[in-house]
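Predict both folds.
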Amino acid sequence: MEWGMANRMAQLIQSDGHCLFLPVDHGYFQGPTRKLEEPRKTLEPLLPYADAVFITRGVLRSSVDPGKAKPIILRVSGGASMVGKDLANEGITTSMEEAIRLNVAAVGISVFVGTDYEKESLLNLAKLVDDGERYGIPVMAVTAVGKELEKRDARYLSLASRIAAELGARVVKTYWCENFEKVTKGCPVPVVMAGGPKVDTQRQVFDFVYDGMQKGAVGVNLGRNIWQDEYPVAMIKALRAVIHNNATPKEAEEIYNSEKSGKKK
């Protein structure tokens, strides 16, 4: 691995082999998502506890102080929205030259395996990998499912993750599922867990993150389950303990409740 590529990967995946990525890229297809209407206000209290931020160039420029930034994973795919015909119909929206200009640690792109736009999204990934390898910038592939949430099973996610790795992604972001070890064992590059829609309780998040870490994930890329929580700083601190300190779900819940109580005071 070239020095530049290795250096950027080391910025993302910490010395313990784990990582906590904070995505705030939701607006690229959802618009002003709840509690992300003003990205700067959402991000600032959370940045100290994130290892990297997944973000679009527009929000990066408008909402992140260059002097206080964390490593950036730049969202470079898009072109579809929640009100359009098909979320899978994405293209590459941001050039590698722009990524270099913004001094990012990685770029991220969604792939839509099993959709009408499977071929286009996979070829987008392949082209992005070619460009990224040329400049020493890793590509994170996101195994997106659009609105078809029933696809989140081990068979589908292991297929999509392996294809992304085969095409050259250096990191794969995918959903946690039952039998998650089938996904990680079949993917020869690091796997980070996505969150999807916010779940009902904090304990559910701690449970699936802990399970995924035990089964081979290197970390998470969680957004709504953190910044839509009533106590987002408590939530990210508790998750950080699971990821970097191997805290159990019970211990994470105790950290969350303790931080929450301190916030009330």
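Second protein follows, with its predicted structure tokens after the sequence.
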Amino acid sequence: MRGTVDLQVSGFAVIRQSDCAIDLTRPIQKLLPRLKAGGIIIQSLGPNLQRGCSPVDAPFVKSLAALLLLWGFSVLNAQQDQNTRFDFSCSTFPANLSESDLLSRYGQGNVITAMITGADDPSFEGTVLFPNQDDARVEIAWYDAKTKQSPAGVRIRGQHSRWRLPNGIALGDDLLGVERRNGFPFRLSSFSVEGQGTVRSWGRGRIQNADTERCGIKISFQPNWDGTDDPMFLRQVIRGLEFSSGHPAMQAINPRVRAISITYPVK
């Protein structure tokens, strides 16, 4: 009796074997606990068929089971890589960092030389970490641009990132949530000055930046700037030097963290 058995691995792919009347889930029963422990599930989608294969099919089944195991773990590793959170701190990016350090740590495919831009500066040559992953991308400017040594600044920016500060703050966090975590209102610059939306002080709150003598952290909040914020509230926090996060207009706008930088003393 012949038929078809479909095997699905973690919902990613279907393996079909119809040349042999055998339930392909049976030869890999011993592998299932290992796969399940790694978060990989193999599920039979077809009927259990009567046994009737010739002995020559056994090597094929063993090979298939081994391939499923290897492929499944490769998928699991890829998923884990995508979910990995990174530490964005002065210890990860110290003042004596070099591009060769990054290459040794993250691999050649994840570190490239590229043009980057400052807040108000033209493009210049720097280093980009994880250039093909928007949620892991890091831009690095160097004091010694020729040898790529001694960082002048390290920055992440955008809607979301897997990089997270030691105090837990990450891109995309909103002002109200950060204020609750701090326990008190904090101070940030207005949205019209250079370094707009940058946290100036955490006040009496629980959050503190992990600054050192050779490294500092700068966190910048931004409104949406897409017309969805009430212009009446925006006008109230554009003029002036700095405001409390408890200001009614700040609370109404509820800006989000859109850039985090590590800064270093000028050499």
